[in-house]
Design goal:
heterodimer; A: 189 residues; mainly beta; Protocatechuate 3,4-Dioxygenase, subunit A; 2 helices; 10 strands; globular; B: mainly beta; five-stranded mixed β-sheet; binds fe (ii) ion
Chain lengths: 189, 236
């Protein structure tokens, strides 16, 4: 038995932006001129069960650096992690339900085969956040990924961000469908 | 790598809780799928001492324009722990709340109650080496919301908590002891178990109350802990 029990989650509510967005500048841009790796943009809509944008939602991402390392004590390769990259990003989706991140394509984490980003979505009307992943449509090794292969084949596409060939900076489109036919796969790690 | 306990769904709220009406179309309906805990789940952002400054944890001072904010000054303290009782140091807590009248500074808050020019209700603090935090603020007021006829949120402070890894992330709300609105609130009542509810209600803390200055409240926060191996189990 654990000594203590988890404090339960409550909704982020509609009024988080002054504290979670405005008190820290530029949280949806994870890179600066010293960050190693290929600059990319990831953008998408957070949509409810009626395919309406959730304009009081927030998305957070957590990813490895360009070489697949994390600047965190649990990573045995921490000493090699890019000092110009924290791996953490946050974007509000208040403008029409659209979130956007400027980041780098993550490297392959040792022991895995293809790049991905961990994601969490919070919203008014969600009593607890939901956890998902972003994979990339231009990665051939996705077919060999343990997690993607554990997902029913007909739902795998909900985890794959689509490269938009029209954009000068590689831009990946990744909508979060909270419900419906294309409900995004959410995880319980 | 050390594995962590998953989200305890006996104490966390479900995605769909019909009395809180906007949950109906916003939470996932399909079953959550398993995700192995690997390096990407067992790491998370590391926040340094430069993340926050001293004023960030004093909401009675961090937004002054022409005087002090109005309302009942309070001090909130607590400890961030995991389920094994390990203190979590250097963790970022972000807080936001309504002012004493129940009004948020947020532009979409249309509650007919006055804004306070000297209060934004936003703060940040890092836990210290013992996992403890402390901030000073104004006791928030209750406020109405459109969920149902005559719906009022009990007084609360929103907390955003980063633990040490991706799994320990928590957003929650702290309530005040004895508030009659809690038992009427569909958000609070979205919690499935009574003990879980109790963990979100702060305690009045006379040892923190400062003479001639402010009342004290204590609010400890517990996030997922490492899975205990059978060898470590203390049960007979
Ligand atoms: Fe609130």
């Amino acid at each position: 038995m654990s000594q203590f029990e988890q404090s339960p989650s409550q909704t982020i509510g509609p009024f988080f932006r002054n504290a979670l967005i405005e008190m820290t500048a530029n949280q949806n841009n994870l890179i600066n001129e010293n960050t190693a790796g290929q600059k990319i943009i990831i953008t998408g809509l957070v949509l409810d069960g009626n395919s309406q944008p959730i304009t009081d939602s927030m998305v957070e991402i957590w990813q490895a650096d360009a070489n697949g390392y994390f600047n965190h004590p649990a990573d045995p390769n921490r000493a090699k992690a890019d000092p110009a990259f924290s791996g953490h990003g946050r974007s509000e989706a208040v403008n029409g339900g659209r979130y956007t991140f400027t980041t780098i394509k993550p490297g392959i984490i040792p022991g895995t085969v293809t790049p991905y980003i961990n994601l969490r979505v919070f919203a008014r009307g969600m009593l607890i956040h939901a956890i998902s992943r972003i994979y990339f449509s231009d990665e051939a090794e996705n077919d060999n990924d343990e997690v993607l292969n554990s997902v029913p084949a007909e739902r795998r596409h909900t985890l794959v961000a689509q490269l938009d060939p029209a954009e000068p900076i590689p831009t990946y489109r990744f909508d979060l469908n909270m419900q419906g036919e294309n409900e995004t796969v959410f995880f319980n790690p | 790598m050390t594995q962590f306990n998953p989200i305890n769904w006996k104490t966390h709220p479900p995605y769909i809780h019909p009395p809180y009406r906007s949950t109906a179309k916003r939470g996932p309906l399909k079953k959550l799928l398993p995700l192995p805990q690997k390096l990407s789940e067992l790491t998370g952002p590391v926040f340094g001492a430069d993340t926050v400054n001293e004023l960030d944890s004093d909401l009675t001072r961090n937004a002054r324009v022409n005087g002090e904010p109005i309302g009942e000054r309070i001090i909130v303290v607590g400890k961030l722990l995991d389920e094994s009782g390990n203190a979590i140091p250097n963790a970022l807590l972000e807080v936001w709340q309504a002012n004493a009248c129940g009004r948020y500074i947020h532009k979409v808050d249309q509650h007919d109650a006055p804004l306070d020019p000297n209060f934004t209700g936003c703060g940040r603090v890092l836990t210290d080496a013992n996992g403890e935090y402390r901030f000073t603020t104004i006791k928030p007021g209750a406020y109405p919301w459109g969920n149902h006829e005559n719906a009022w949120r009990p007084a609360h402070i929103h907390f955003s908590v980063f633990g040490t890894n991706f799994l320990q992330r928590l957003v929650t709300q702290m309530y005040f002891p004895g508030d009659p609105l809690m038992s009427l609130d569909p958000i609070f009542n979205g919690l499935p178990d009574e003990n879980g509810k109790k963990r979100l209600v702060s305690d009045y803390a006379h040892d923190i109350t400062t003479p001639e200055w402010a009342l004290g409240y204590r609010f400890n926060i517990v996030v997922n802990g490492p899975k205990e191996t059978p060898f470590e189990t203390k049960e007979a």
